[in-house]
From TrEMBL:
Database matches in CDD domains: NTP-PPase_RS21-C6_like
Protein name: Nucleotide pyrophosphohydrolase
PANTHER family cross-referenced by the UniProt entry: DCTP PYROPHOSPHATASE 1
A biological-process GO annotation: nucleoside triphosphate catabolic process
InterPro entries: dCTP_Pyrophosphatase, DCTPP
Pfam family, any one: MazG-like
Listed transmembrane segments: none
Coiled-coil residue spans: none
UniProt GO molecular function: nucleoside triphosphate diphosphatase activity
Record lineage: Bacteria, Bacillati, Bacillota, Bacilli, Lactobacillales
């Protein structure tokens, strides 16, 4: 599924429930942060939340929530998230990082 199809489906879903009035940038940003916290919650007591299929599925659904709110914010801003990621990646490729690679440990 490409981004254009995803955003059209999300807008249709939102509009069918009359949620447009709740989808302002501030509310979407708050919701995005809450969902990102729910992603982090999967790591609270476990190094690897993918150790079982149920936990992995749950983590994937939280990531889907994060992406959904991100897509809604991008729709409000009139930008394509794929373009934003590409732009940021290109910036990072030319960036000089302030940290160095960790030293390799002798085995």
């Amino acid at each position: 599924m490409d981004y254009e199809k995803v955003i059209l489906d999300l807008i249709e879903f939102r509009n069918s429930r009359n949620w447009q009035k709740y989808h302002n940038l501030k509310s979407l940003a708050i919701s995005l942060n809450i969902e990102a916290s729910e992603v982090l919650e999967h790591f609270q007591w476990s190094e690897d939340p993918t150790e079982s299929d149920n936990k992995k599925d749950s983590l994937e659904m939280e990531l889907a929530d994060v992406l959904t709110y991100t897509f809604y914010m991008c729709e409000k801003l009139g930008v394509n998230p794929m373009d934003l990621v590409e732009k940021k990646l290109n910036m990072n490729k030319n960036r000089k990082w302030k940290f160095s690679e960790p030293e390799k440990q002798d085995e």
